[in-house]
Amino acid sequence: MAQGAPLEGTVAQRIRQVRGSLAPGELRVVAALTDGYPTAGLVPIAQLAAEAQVSAPTALRLVSKLGFPGYGAFQESLRAEVQTRLFSPVTVYPTDDPGVDRAGPADDADLADALALYTDGVRATINNLSRADLAGAVAALADTDRRVMLLGGRFTSVLAAELHQYLRMLRSGVVLVQPNSGDRMAAMTDVDDRTVAVLFDYRRYQQTTIEWGLRAAERGAELVLITDVYLSPLASQAASVLTTSHTGPGPFDSMAHGFVLAELLVSLVTKELGEPARNRLADFEEMQLAEERQRRLPRKG
């Protein structure tokens, strides 16, 4: 971020932009906020300061560094985030407008809108990534002495599955935890301080994913959280927090940007792993080609 550039985005995004320049007391306020984000900041300034064990002026200095003219504007931003977290696709479901002539199921205006939304979303996703958190996530995923477990929710399990499919071709010890009770419990028995747990959790945040992540952290796992800009409650427990945009044509939040991030992680992990990953991938492709040749052979008898 350029010196003096105005801060934008959610409170969480702003915190990540200035974290490296905060004083110890201000970092304690950040810790108090993230433990109960975003509602932790909706209390009076004296209460927030007391919870962080700092003075009220220290808490106000943090608010100023985040780019807000005062505590009221800071709280207004948090209240808007609370409302956004309650998003429902029903509220933005398109309605027929008899006064609008349409060229067909998807006209040029629809395609232009989609292009703009997806382009802006990808740009925001890349620009808002914490470089430190991204580097930490890549290092953890490339550490072949550690087991990697990936878990998503009802919808985000497809993101976990894609990242799993690629990572397992590059390195060993990669496990996809299926989003059901039995598989989650079985996987938890293997979690320890040599585990990297990658969790996908987007609004509306799934309680079973949150509980699994908290339990994994208690058992010593390093959490890599992939979430939206409003932050899963797991953010305060994660070693690395990677956020993506959710913008798309609607009515559902788009997961396209989650796929972009997953593929970026694969690319960076591949570079980190180097020649051993190339050799493993070559073995994989050789076995795949041999299987395809075997299938083409005529059956005897």
Keywords:
single chain; alpha/beta; Arc Repressor Mutant, subunit A; 5-stranded parallel beta sheet; DNA-binding transcription factor activity; HTH_RpiR
How would you describe this structure to a colleague?
It holds the Pfam family HTH_6. Keywords: DNA-binding, Transcription, Transcription regulation. With 301 residues, the chain is an alpha/beta fold. It has two domains: 11-85, Arc Repressor Mutant, subunit A, CATH 1.10.10.10; 126-287, Glucose-6-phosphate isomerase like protein, domain 1 (Rossmann fold). It is built from twelve helices and five strands. Strands 2-1-3-4-5 form a five-stranded parallel β-sheet, with helices on both faces.
CATH 2nd-level architecture of the largest domain: 3-Layer(aba) Sandwich
Q: How many individual helices?
A: 12
Q: Percentage of helical residues? A: 40-55%
Tell the overall outline: globular
In short:
With 301 residues, the protein is an alpha/beta fold. Helix content is 52%, strand content 9%.
SSE topology:
Layout: H1 11-18, H2 24-35, H3 45-52, H4 56-65, H5 71-85, H6 108-127, H7 131-141, E1 147-151, H8 157-170, E2 174-177, H9 181-188, E3 195-201, H10 207-218, E4 222-228, E5 240-244, H11 256-273, H12 275-296
Parallel strand pairs: 1-2, 1-3, 3-4, 4-5
Helix pairs in contact: 2-3, 2-4, 3-4, 6-11, 7-11, 8-11
